[in-house]
Each structure stands twice: as structure tokens, then as C-alpha cells.
């Protein structure tokens, strides 16, 4: 059996690395090949290196000022040659990037079966997130096997007419990735945090409000946030720093998107108490998250990782396709309004009970065994689905 695993961006690398590992650990005669599209070249390479994955093929599509159309066109053309040469049984894609969409459709055109990891995420608004929501829907039309992370994602697929026996609830592979990294790098990281990052900032105890500095980690990169939303987020950070002074440090690993980088550097570059960092490698980033009091993010993956690290999340978006975290109580949907951000941070800053209620939650997105289930299913074996009522792993072997 030949399986091509297509990876274009950092989140795809993080979420597919456990699948690559689980498949290569199988005894079965399976030829697993990793195809990088390099849609985001540097971030992808950084993430793959952490998991010690060397792509077999690199389509090398990234160009300056690229648009989704140009990325898709390059992938259709270059991936077609790979499909022709390898005639895979499965093309495995993850998530909702342009890589995901183009590789899935190209695989379908070439007659391969397409498996979609993290299938069934929906906001119901084709323009938000853009173009990810459309990419998800398109992949669901051509996939043979849909690996839904949660029961909610499964329901979304059923509602669109996807056959029940094509959907498997596996949990999210990012929970496997977090577990793998934390098991192997409990204290160190592969990349030392830059000097500017104050080592004295410990994860603050919400019961001792006045002692020490608390860290807030901010990540933002979404297309819909850029512009008005990002300006409001930066203004909220300045207001919080003014109010809380040395009690607060805001640490921002800045996404390399030129617009994001330029805005954050000009709005917050000179603000005392704000630490701007380059993109961190995954272990360093998880360690940073774990050291924080609160996470502010518009990232999808970070919303799924935070409950494994016991840190509450404020989601800086109008909608989220990850309602599980809102229901479980470990995240709040705040949007990008300046006053709403300040108000929500302050409410948790001063209320230990409200804060604890957000941290004492088990991860609703997975149990750390998603990749095992996905590998087994691709090889045609039956699986026991992920059940959040049994959050500590697979049932014991009978
Ligand atoms: N991440 C990382 N280093 C950083 C910032 C983020 O390794 O400096 C990881 C993060 O843990 C998450 C993924 O990158 O798994 C999120 O990527 P991004 O926010 O770009 O995309 P999204 O999750 O929204 O698809």
C-alpha cells in the first residue's frame, strides 16, 4: 500500500506528524511518503524538523506575494506528476489550507482515495475564516474517509449528507503532538527562548493576585483579523499594560505574515512590558504557553492545545468552529473589540474562582490516541472511536 501524506503549513506539520509516526510504526507493508508543498516554507521546515520528519518530495510552491489561486495552481501542476509516478492508494490531507484543498482535489482527479484529517469543522460562514471554510467544504465533497476530531464535527458532516460509515471520530491529532513533545522535552526546548523573554515570569497563581508578574501570550495571524481587528487587539494590549503595569508581561511570537508583522511592530514594538519574539519552534512555544496565565489567540490549533496545558483561552474571533472548548468552559469567544478584550482579561485577572473554572477541564478535543486510530483505519482495521467521557485513553484490551 502506498500512502502520500501532504503537508503545506506549520499547523499541518504539527497535526500530521503523529500520523506519519503512527503509520511508519506499523508492521504492515506500507510505503508512507511525505509530500511537502512548502506553502509556508520556513514555518513548515521548522515544524517538520522538531518531529524529525524529512519530506520525500518537496513541491516548493511558495512565492513572494502568493495568493490562494497561485498556490493552488502550482500544487495542481506539481502534485499531478507525483500522483502519476506513485499511484497512491491514499492521499492524506489535514485541515483547511489551500494545500489541503488542492491536494485533495488533485488526488481525487487522479483516482486515489482521499482521507481528510480534522474533517467536519464548520463555522457556517463561507467567508469566515477565509478561505479555510470553503476549503473544508470542498475537501468533504471529494474525501472517501473523514477523520472527525469530535462528535460535533461528525454531526456537521452527517448534516451535509456524508455517509455515516465514512466518518470516524478519532480525536484531534494535535493532542497527540502536545503529549509527544511534553513527554520528550519536559523542561528543555530545542530553541532557547530569546534573552528578552523574562525567565522570572512563572505561571502565576490566581489566588495570589499581587505577587509577581503574569504572562499573557498573544498569537494572531488570520486574514480576517488583519487591519481593523489587529489594531483593536494592539490597543487592548496597551490599555492592559497601562492598567496593570509591571504585574503584566505580554509575549507575542509574531507571525511572519508581512502585514501582521508590520502592524504589531509599529503598534507594540516600543511598548514596555510587551515582548516580541520570532516564531518559536513547537517545544519552545508549548513551554511558553504553559508558562502563561492566559492565552489570547485567533489560531485554531492553539485553542485545541491550551486545554492540555491547563491555560484558559480568549478567542479573538467573531466565530469559532471549535465550540467544544466554549462548552467545556476552557475558552471564551471574545472577538476583536478593544473593550471586550480588556474586560475579559480583567475579569479573570481578579477572580480566582472564574479562572479556576476555566482550567479544571479535561481536553475536549482528544485523548492522545487520534493518530493510532487514523493509522489503523487507513490500513483497514476497525477502531474504537474517541469518547470525551473517557478522556484518558483507549479502553483496555479485553
Ligand atoms: N506555533 C508554533 N510556534 C509559534 C506559534 C505557533 O509552533 O511561534 C504552533 C501552535 O502551537 C499551533 C500552530 O503553530 O499548533 C498554529 O499555527 P497557526 O496559528 O499558524 O495556524 P492555525 O492553528 O490557526 O491553523
Structure write-up:
The chain is an alpha/beta fold. The protein folds into two domains: 184 residues, 3-Layer(aba) Sandwich (Rossmann fold), CATH 3.40.50.2000; 168 residues, 3-Layer(aba) Sandwich (Rossmann fold). It has 15 helices and 13 strands. The chain has a seven-stranded parallel sheet with strand order 3-2-1-4-5-6-7, sandwiched between helices. Helix 1 packs across helix 7, helix 1 packs across helix 15 and helix 7 packs across helix 11. The chain binds uridine-5'-diphosphate (UDP). The site of uridine-5'-diphosphate (UDP) has 15 residues, from helix 1, helix 10 and helix 11.
Number of domains: 2
Spatial order of strands in the largest sheet? 3-2-1-4-5-6-7
- The count of helical stretches stands at 15
CATH superfamily placement of the largest domain: Glycogen Phosphorylase B
Radius of gyration (Å): 21 Å
* CATH class membership of the largest domain: Alpha Beta
**What would the average pLDDT be, to the nearest integer?**
92
Q: What would CATH call the architecture of the largest domain?
A: 3-Layer(aba) Sandwich
User: Helical amount among residues, as a percent range?
Assistant: 40-55%
Bound ions, cofactors and other small molecules, one mention each: uridine-5'-diphosphate
Give the class from helix and strand content and strand pairing: alpha/beta
Strand content: 5-15%
Task: Report, as a whole number of angstroms, the end-to-end distance.
Answer: 29 Å
The helix/strand series, from N terminus to C terminus, equals EHEHEHEHEHEHEHEHEHEHEHEHEHHH
State the shape.
globular
